[in-house]
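Recall that a protein's primary structure is simply its ordered list of amino acids. Everything else, from secondary elements to tertiary packing, is in principle encoded there. The following example makes that idea concrete.
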Amino acid sequence: MMTGTAAGVPFTALPPTGGGPAPLLVTWHMLDAPRTDAAFAAALPMHEVPAWRVHLGMPMCGARMVDGSTAAVEALMRKDPLMSFLAPFVRQAVDEFPAALDSLRTQLPVGTGPIGVLGGSLGGAVTLQVLAGTDIPIAAAAVVNAAVRMRSVVDLFGEYQYDAESARAVDDLDFVARSNEIANRAPLLVVSGELDHPALRADALDLVDALGCELRSIPGLAHPLADEPGLEPALQLPLARTVDQALTTWFTQHLGPVPS
């Protein structure tokens, strides 16, 4: 592993076998375990993918944790799970990505061609928003136990009182409703644990139906991909290895040639 920052965004990068020029695959981690870029890299290393796998840190996670703990994030969850936590984290991760991508291209031999993108859980919402809301060229995309409809994620925190602003925010993060903005952007793989939260599992299936994209169901997989606390790299769990194998096959098939 190598670590660094790209336009202020911390990352953990895994080189292709032998190093050198290769396509770029960018990921955004979960807010459940594994909840940092380094931990996500260990859970889903995709060692056999012939690409630079660069795992970006989400806001206030990993190297950007306040006082080295998750307490500040937990306080935002309690204050307002949608408007203080979920929506701003997705928005910041997407907003800071173009500059981070430009910086990665200056640091790594990845060329300027289309990239791969991958997100887990809330990072999946980032990936879907990159597809729906940016014109960054994407060669292939995948999401794992993704936040496909943010309203379903908010429901996990208990009863929530929506006003006009929060209703707009949650609707903007409904990627089934926005599937026409994702269609034809790039080949998309939806990985869904059969034991994920029932609403998130249903949303994943609805997205597949709306897009006609590829689905990989993982028997026995709940929402997390690692054991708690999920802050540091850990041994890959057997079910995470199954996810890793599916992603490895997908990105090996769909990422472009080695850049010049």
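The mean pLDDT is 96. The CA atoms of residues 48 and 248 lie 7 Å apart.
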